[in-house]
Design a protein that fits this description.
This protein is α/β, with parallel strands linked by helices. It is built from 5 helices and 7 strands, in the order αβαβαββαβαββ. It has a single domain, classed as Vaccinia Virus protein VP39 (Rossmann fold), CATH 3.40.50.150. Helix content is 35%, strand content 30%. The longest helix has 13 residues, at 3-15.
């Protein structure tokens, strides 16, 4: 990971305005860097990191256990389409590389007014796809990051 990527990923929980009681979903969590930062911020809430790569999830679990984060769990990304209920999360963080089709599912699992932050290579495309998925207040939040609010 480059220094730029580390700084950007460290900023994502702040850009998503995570507070102590939020329930947070992290898509494309990798080894859990952003998920662990989110779990520290949402220390009275819950964080779920999803990824499709078993090796990354195993390492993420190890790192979370080392930090004794009891409000953080990891699962295979297939959980986004099965097992997550409407309005289960206050915040979603989406890392680059996650399929754009996930945005439609996000609009369902976020509470009305829930916040989403998307890390992306093309902020214009991310903004257009967020708008098409029904999100509002779509705007750049930082270089390579777009923020939006779930319609309510």
């Amino acid at each position: 990971m480059t220094t730029h990527e580390l700084l950007r990923d460290a900023a994502l929980p702040s850009l998503a305005r995570i507070d102590a009681y939020d329930w947070v979903l992290v898509l494309g969590c990798g080894i859990g860097w952003t998920s662990r930062r989110a779990a520290h911020r949402a220390h009275r809430g819950q964080v779920l990191g999803l990824d499709a790569r078993p090796g990354m999830l195993a390492r993420a679990r190890e790192l979370a256990a080392a930090e004794e984060l009891r409000n953080l769990r990891y699962a295979d990304v297939s959980g986004l389409s099965a097992g997550l209920g409407a309005g289960d999360f206050d915040v979603a963080i989406v890392h680059s590389g996650v399929a754009w089709s996930a945005l439609t599912a996000l609009s369902r699992v976020l509470v009305p007014g829930g916040r989403v932050v998307v890390e992306c290579e093309d902020p214009g495309e991310a903004a257009a796809r967020l708008s098409a998925a029904g999100f509002t207040e779509v705007a750049p939040a930082a270089p390579e990051v777009v923020a939006a609010v779930a319609a309510g």
